[in-house]
C-alpha cells in the first residue's frame, strides 16, 4: 500500500486527563508509517496536538504531560469566575515554544476555542499560541476564562469537542481520536447539584461530537475511556495504553481504509 502521498488529518477531542490516550493513538499510527500532517485539537487534544505539531515524539509528549504536575497547574482564584487559572501551563509552553506562535510548528495546527460573548467556536491557526491553548483548556466551572481582544474564551469542547472543518478541504484522509465516546456511561451519583451539572456537561460534549464523527474516515474511541475520570491525572500511562492498544487492534481496518482512499483518489485523477 502506498499512501505516502496522502495528506492525513487528525482531529483530537477534549477530555481532560484522558488526553494521554491521544499520545497512545499517535504512537500506534506513526509506528506503522501513518503520519498525520494536519492537526486540529480541542482542550487536552489541543495540548497533545500542539506537542505533536511542534515535532515532539510520543515519548517526549508523555514526558511533558507527566512532568506538568496538576498541583502546579492549579492556582486558586475566585470561585465565581472559575476556580483556577492556567498560568503554569503557559509557563511550561513558554519553555517548550518560546516564540509563542503557530508559524514555527512542524505541521499546520488549528485549536478550537469557545467565544462566550458570541457563543461561537473559533478555530485559530495564528495568534498568541500560549493564550489560545490555555483558552481551549479552560473547562467551565474549573478554570477561569481567558480574555483575548476583549472577549472571554473557554474550552472549545463546549461548542464542538472534535471539530473537523479545517481538515475537510486540506486532507485526503481524516482520523478522529475521540476521548468522550457516545454510549453507555458508568452509573453516577446525581444527588447533588454539582454532580448533575457535570453529568449534563458530559452528555452535551458527547452529543456535540456526533456530527464530526460522520465526517471522519476513521474514528478511534476506546470505550473503556468512559470509566476514566477526566480529572484523574494519576493514571496517565494507563490511559495512554488504552489509546495505543485500541489503535493497534484496529490497525488492519485503518490500513484498508487508507488503501481504499488511495485507490479512489488515483481513479479520480486518471
Question: How far apart lie the N and C ends?
Answer: 18 Å
What ranges have pLDDT less than 50 throughout 5 or more consecutive residues? Answer: 70-82
Could you give a short account of the major beta sheet? 8 strands, mixed
Q: Helices and strands, in N-to-C order?
A: EHEHHHHEEHEEHEHEHH
The class by helix and strand makeup works out as alpha/beta
Shape: globular
Nearest-integer average pLDDT: 89
Helix content: 40-55%
* Count of alpha/pi helices: 10
Number of strands: 8
Strand content: 5-15%
Oligomer: single chain
Radius of gyration: 18 Å
Write the layout of secondary structure elements.
Layout: E1 8-12, H1 20-31, E2 38-42, H2 44-53, H3 58-67, H4 70-73, H5 87-96, E3 109-115, E4 120-124, H6 129-136, E5 146-148, E6 151-155, H7 165-168, E7 173-177, H8 193-213, E8 218-220, H9 236-249, H10 251-269
Parallel strand pairs: 1-2, 1-7, 2-3, 7-8
Antiparallel strand pairs: 3-4, 3-6, 5-6
Give a verbal description of the structure.
Strands 1, 2, 3, 4, 5, 6, 7 and 8 form an eight-stranded mixed β-sheet that branches. Helix 1 packs antiparallel against helix 3 and helix 1 packs parallel to helix 9. About 5% of the residues have low confidence. The protein has ten helices and eight strands. The two termini are 18 Å apart. By secondary structure, the protein is α/β, with parallel strands linked by helices.
Amino acid at each position: 500500500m502506498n499512501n505516502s502521498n496522502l495528506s492525513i488529518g487528525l482531529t483530537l477531542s477534549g477530555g481532560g486527563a484522558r488526553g494521554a490516550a491521544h499520545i497512545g493513538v499517535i504512537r500506534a499510527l506513526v509506528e506503522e508509517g501513518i503520519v498525520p500532517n494536519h492537526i486540529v485539537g480541542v482542550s487536552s487534544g489541543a495540548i497533545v496536538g500542539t506537542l505533536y505539531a511542534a515535532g515532539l515524539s510520543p515519548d517526549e509528549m508523555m514526558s511533558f504531560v507527566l512532568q506538568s504536575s496538576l498541583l502546579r497547574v492549579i492556582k486558586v482564584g475566585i470561585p465565581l469566575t472559575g476556580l483556577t487559572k492556567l498560568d503554569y501551563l503557559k509557563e511550561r509552553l513558554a519553555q517548550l515554544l518560546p516564540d509563542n506562535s503557530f508559524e514555527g510548528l512542524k505541521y499546520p495546527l488549528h485549536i478550537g476555542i469557545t467565544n462566550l460573548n458570541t457563543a461561537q467556536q473559533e478555530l485559530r491557526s495564528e495568534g498568541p499560541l500560549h493564550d489560545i491553548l490555555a483558552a481551549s483548556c479552560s473547562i467551565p466551572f474549573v478554570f477561569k476564562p481567558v480574555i483575548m481582544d476583549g472577549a472571554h474564551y473557554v474550552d472549545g469542547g463546549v461548542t464542538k469537542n472534535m471539530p473537523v472543518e479545517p481538515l475537510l478541504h486540506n486532507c485526503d484522509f481524516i482520523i478522529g481520536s475521540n476521548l468522550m465516546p457516545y454510549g453507555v456511561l458508568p452509573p453516577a451519583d446525581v444527588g447533588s447539584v454539582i454532580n448533575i451539572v457535570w453529568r449534563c456537561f458530559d452528555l452535551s460534549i458527547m452529543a456535540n461530537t456526533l456530527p464530526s464523527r460522520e465526517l471522519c474516515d476513521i474514528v478511534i474511541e476506546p470505550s473503556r475511556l468512559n470509566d476514566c475520570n477526566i480529572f484523574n491525572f494519576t493514571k496517565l500511562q494507563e490511559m495512554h495504553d488504552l489509546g495505543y492498544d485500541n489503535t493497534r487492534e484496529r490497525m488492519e481496518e485503518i490500513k484498508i481504509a487508507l488503501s481504499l482512499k488511495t485507490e479512489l483518489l488515483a481513479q479520480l485523477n486518471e
